Amino acid sequence: MKCEAARDNIVLMGYGELPDELAGGLEEHLTGCEDCRRELNALRAMEEYLVLAPVLEPSPNLLTQSRMRLDEALDSIPPHGFLTRLRVNFFSWVGHVQSAPALATLLLGVGFLSGNFTYRYQVAHAPKPKGTLTINHPADGVIANVTGIVQTPNSELVQVNYNRIVPETAEGSLDEPRIRELLMLGMNPAATSGVRVNSASLLSGECKQGHDCSVQADGTGIRGKLMVALRYDNDPGVRLTALEGLQRYVGQDRRVRDAVLEALMHDSDAEVRTAAIGLLEPVQSDSSVRQVLRTVSTQDENQYIRTASYQALQGAGDIQ
After folding, report:
1. At a CB cut-off of 8 Å and minimum separation 6, what does 226 contact?
2. Is the dihedral of CA 133, 137, 138, 143 positive or negative?
3. Total-model pTM
4. Looking at domain 177-319, what is its CATH homologous superfamily?
5. Domain ranges within the chain, ordered by starting residue
6. Which of 55, 71, 122, 299 has the fewest CB atoms within 10 Å, i.e. is most exposed?
């Protein structure tokens, strides 16, 4: 409350005409305004002085003249415009609302519910957009999987996120690391049998020609990939090709020798087992190799494999 309005309310309070809804605001203003408190004290002092002074009754003529002059003054005031009346009525309404918190809460709730209902009505009756399909970064390829689905609230608009498998081609020399990496990926079980055979053939050729066919400590590399294929690939053609690539390293790499011995004992294909016997010829003097050949020559169910193992043992005896 401003000082001007407070002084008007002080006068009304002095005459006992101050509305109850304005009394609280006036008291709060007087607490922090020294000038208005002096104005109130002056009014009270004047009232006390007037109480002590004798009251004189005005004459009938004075009252009549005063009323006539008041009527003339009121008639001379121009009528208020529409905006003035609207402003007065608005502030009067705000004053009533401030004095009635329950009414203010009710009006706020009604306004919120009305706005929410209007929004839902507009969304429900809004024209539906035409069926359009927008694809960000379109590319040729097979859809691999859907990663997420998001629907716009209160609409039929849906956003679908997905991944594509885009085919690519790499061309280069067998000595290039990227080509070798792709060929090793081509030997994974997920690849087709034809791709695995071709990859194994190319990598085995690199090993047979003495190119880089090293194996890392963790078993990776071309040689490690060929040993994994020899042990676990389902295609006997891939296993046979892997044997050919490992032939050069049977004598110098113990891990390769163990993989070949394991193929001799447990491989399901007789041709692969026969090729394994042939690869072991340079190392038949090794005790572990002789032990495996002796076991196979006496206990294997396949007569041809038993005979081939026996002949290899005889050859080893001649070497010794």
Report:
1. 200, 203, 204, 207, 242, 245, 246
2. negative
3. 0.50
4. Leucine-rich Repeat Variant (1.25.10.10)
5. 1-45, 177-319
6. 55
CB 292 within 8 A of CB 259: no
CA–CA gap between residue 315 and residue 278 (Å, rounded): 11
Residue pointed to by tokens 């998001």: 150
pLDDT in tens, 197-216: 999 999 899 888 888 887 77
Q: How many CB atoms lie within 10 A of CB 235?
A: 17
Residue tagged 């070949």 (tokens): 260
- 8 Å CB contact between 139 and 166: yes
The neighbour count for residue 230, using CB atoms within 10 Å, is 25
Helix pair angle (236-246, 254-266), 10° resolution: 150
Are the CB atoms for 161 and 146 separated by under 8 Å? Answer: yes
End-to-end CA distance of the chain: 120
Three-class DSSP labels, the chain: CCHHHHHHHHHHHHCCCCCHHHHHHHHHHHHHCHHHHHHHHHHHHHHHHHHHCCCCCCCHHHHHHHHHHHHHHHHHCCCCCHHHHHHHHHHHHHHHHHCCHHHHHHHHHHHHHHHHHHHHHHHHHCCCCCCCCCCCCCCCCEEEEEEEEEECCCCCCEEEEEEEECCCCCCCCCCCHHHHHHHHHCCCCCCCHHHHHHHHHHHHHHHHCCCCCCCCCCCCCHHHHHHHHHHHCCCHHHHHHHHHHHHHHCCCCHHHHHHHHHHHHHCCCHHHHHHHHHHCHHHCCCHHHHHHHHHHHHHCCCHHHHHHHHHHHHHHHHHC
